[in-house]
Amino acid sequence: xTCPQCGADNPGNNKFCMKCGAELPxxxxxxxxxxxxxxxxxxxxxxNTPPAPSFNTPAFxxxxxxxxxxxxxxxxxxxxxxxxVIIDGIVLWVIDLVLSIIHxxxxxxxxxxxxxxxxxxxxxxxxxxxxxxxKVVRADGQPLSIATGVLRYIGYVISCVVVFIxxxxxxxxxxxxxxxxxxxxxxxxxx
Length: 191
Prior knowledge:
Layout lengths: L24 H6 L47 H24 L6 H15 L4 H6 L1 E5 L7 H16 L3 H4 L10 H6 L1 E5 L1
């Protein structure tokens, strides 16, 4: 199978190009439906067999992470994420100010949980993320559920409590994941 993006030849059962990591069109069209002809090396007995395992999913050098489908150039940079956090911090500061004025400042932590949990589980983008054109998704590319959003928020708090080491972790992590991303199996990508 020839990659439409870079022209490299790939085995027929590959979902992604071995050279550039682009998704191959035959993998999208073929699927694994009943009654289809097996790929080269598959069964010739008229029934579907699972495709041979492919170890050439997009990776970062020679490192791969189970379920990770992102190339390095698709991940959001740490600087972009930092600016996004500052914007969200300003929005949360205004919410905290309003709660203080109406004598409900005890609800500030709950407001933060609802803020992040709602945005992460609906669009994957907080207002800061929207401005910076980045998005939070699960490592496998699926959107976050409410439970995953809450788990990520709890991981975010843990990352901050430990002298921000959990947030700084994204600086040297090959997948640009902080502890909160690792806890919830999420990545931040360019939207």
